[in-house]
Amino acid sequence: MKTLTRRDGLRLLLGTAAAGVLARSAAASAVSSRPRAAPRIAVIGDGIGARALASDLHGARVRLDMITAADPALAIDWGRKRIVKKGETLPFDRVVLSPGVAYGGDIGLPMAWRDASSEKEIMRRALLMSEGGVVLIRVPRRPYRFIEGPYVRAERLAGVLSYVNPRAKIRIFDANNDFPDQARRLDHWRKHFGAMVEWIPAVKGGAIRSRAAVRAALGGRPAMGKGYVVDYIPEQKAARITRTSGLADASGWCPIDPRSARSLMKSDAYVIGDAASWDGAPKTALQARLDGAKAARDICLSLA
Questions:
Q1: What are residue 271's DSSP bridge partners?
Q2: Is it true that 6-101+237-303 and 105-234 share their CATH fold?
Q3: 0.85 cut: is pTM over it?
Q4: CATH class given for the domain over 105-234
Q5: Looking at domain 6-101+237-303, does it have CATH number 3.40.190.150?
Q6: Which part of the chain is the Sulfide dehydrogenase [flavocytochrome c] flavoprotein chain central domain (predicted)?
């Protein structure tokens, strides 16, 4: 999977800005050319991509219905083009989903991958470890949110532990056989942290999927203890609403056209953010913003 460079990031930022300008231009054109009732756009989820979409549709002659993705009773009736929630129905002309991901593979260990507070908790626990303790980071098979995240986290932990607990170990058990920016990171770890950080790829037993496997990786010790910290990152897939509404394929993710963020499963739908899938798609905040801008532009053009 391609790693985003600074140049790629700048290109995406410029692309996001350009897409936003085009979306607003298309919106203005739609306002002047369509006297009929404003089309209704249902937006399910409130992630970064959804907020980018709403911003780019500001001023367009459309009605936005913002709907939380957390409602377990939420459903999409494609035949009648309506959202069903708690006995209420909302008609739509287009539906945009930005629902995030669902986590699976619960083995009864603390999961620290939902938000920024998760990393703070792992750091807090690592600082309380006894001298020479072990941090075990379990990496699931790709794709998952923030592909570089586990390795960035390991590096930050090593940067702190190398001063306060220099005999500590950070062991990364990886269900993949490579990772973004691998050569540079491995070299950096060797130069700055010595043998503190160890990466174990899948071919060397890095794919651990059970509490027993975690215990074995800790040398037979129980999966919870004072001398070590387990950062178990679970398997991930698109949120439930995408799977119950026919937007996800067999992979558990939602295939889209990367040029417009339009679903390849349902022509009236767009999927933006982490739930979306296309070849090489990075699951990052920057990509979610770009997807939102693309979807806004395509909606305006398709309804003009």
A1: 97
A2: yes
A3: no
A4: alpha beta
A5: no
A6: 128-217
